[in-house]
Specification:
single chain, mainly alpha, rod-shaped
Length: about 70
């Protein structure tokens, strides 16, 4: 009975170690992918993406009406 308990505990610990290893690998992959911007896939923080800062230049005429 004691041997069954020991083998059950070893299986449980082995399963927990495997789960922890998988979770650690997933966390590392997510951390590595977080370095890449999802918009332009370049390596910079998400809030510093150059595609988020689009400059709008307009050419206008002095007599151009803004009503339309």
């Amino acid at each position: 009975m004691l041997e069954d308990f020991k083998s059950g505990m070893l299986q449980t610990l082995s399963l927990l170690m495997d789960t922890m290893t998988i979770k650690t690998k997933q966390d590392e992959e997510e951390r590595d992918l977080a370095m890449f911007c999802p918009t332009c896939t370049r390596r910079h923080p998400r809030n510093e993406c150059l595609l988020n800062f689009i400059e709008i230049h307009s050419v206008y005429d002095e007599n151009h009406s803004t009503n339309k």
